[in-house]
């Protein structure tokens, strides 16, 4: 498997420049993973499949879904792509590389674990700030237009928020100067995580059933369906920040009531 990955990587660095891979390549990989993982949840909602696993009984209209997709494409091309192009010199200065051999798996996994921990800390406080009155009204309310989220709404946000919270995602890699392979793997995992958190479904195979402190879709769905001043659940991937600062108490009360209702 490792030999196969290195062979594929050798093809990439032979046929494309480092700048092309780090900027355009990163953008294309992000778009592919994001839309391929997010679009199925839009189809599920429209078709009504797996309705017993849907967290909310409400569904978005076709027009609302279409508006989300069009705005996402606009934001990604006009915000994400320019940022990726402009950030290459910064990452290069911080040590980004594409050469073979690929880094050992223990290095890759250690760096990604660090990225998750740092991102959780920064995202929690950034997200909590966005729920203050002025910032919510003028910036974060765009993301909350969808009280019933589906996978693609994970990146539906005001351009200022994209830049603001995006800082939490890229700071870890910027500090460590990783191999591009590590950066790509981190991006793929982060995209899949946030799409799953916004998918609107709690499946039996959802990671929140198996990974301690993992938030998942049910945890984040609560954040979307209550008033912004009372929502809590500000964390991105793991829930320890909300637990430490008591901003998950409302969620656990509601979950307990829902559990009692099912038993009665």
From TrEMBL:
One Gene Ontology term from the biological process aspect of the record: lipid biosynthetic process
InterPro entries listed in its UniProt record: Fatty_acid_hydroxylase, Sterol_Desaturase_Related
Annotated compartments: Endoplasmic reticulum membrane
GO MF term set: aldehyde oxygenase (deformylating) activity; iron ion binding; oxidoreductase activity
Enzyme nomenclature, EC number: 4.1.99.5
Membrane topology field: Multi-pass membrane protein
Protein name: aldehyde oxygenase (deformylating)
Organism: Spirodela intermedia
Lineage, opening ranks: Eukaryota, Viridiplantae, Streptophyta, Embryophyta, Tracheophyta
């Amino acid at each position: 498997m490792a030999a196969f990955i290195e062979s594929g990587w050798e093809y990439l660095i032979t046929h494309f420049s480092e700048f092309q891979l780090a900027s355009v390549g990163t953008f294309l990989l992000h778009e592919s993973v994001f839309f391929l993982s997010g679009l199925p949840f839009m189809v599920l909602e429209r078709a009504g499949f797996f309705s017993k696993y849907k967290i909310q009984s409400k569904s978005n209209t076709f027009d609302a879904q279409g508006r989300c997709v069009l705005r996402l494409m606009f934001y990604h091309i006009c915000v994400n792509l320019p940022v990726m192009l402009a950030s290459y010199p910064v990452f290069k200065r911080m040590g980004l590389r594409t050469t073979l051999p690929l880094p050992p798996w223990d290095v890759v996994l250690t760096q990604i674990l660090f990225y998750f921990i740092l991102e959780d800390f920064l995202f929690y406080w950034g997200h909590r700030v966005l729920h203050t009155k002025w910032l919510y009204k003028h910036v974060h309310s765009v993301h909350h237009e969808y009280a019933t989220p589906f996978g693609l709404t994970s990146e539906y946000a005001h351009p200022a928020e994209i830049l603001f919270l995006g800082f939490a995602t890229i700071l870890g890699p910027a500090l460590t100067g990783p191999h591009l392979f590590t950066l790509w793997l981190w991006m793929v995992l982060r995209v899949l995580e946030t799409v799953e958190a916004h998918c609107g479904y709690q499946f039996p195979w959802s990671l929140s059933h198996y990974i301690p402190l993992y938030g998942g879709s049910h945890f984040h769905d609560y954040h979307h369906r209550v008033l912004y001043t009372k929502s809590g659940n500000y964390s991105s991937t793991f829930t320890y920040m909300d637990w430490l600062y008591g901003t998950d108490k409302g969620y656990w009360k509601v979950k307990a009531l829902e559990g009692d209702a099912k038993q009665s």
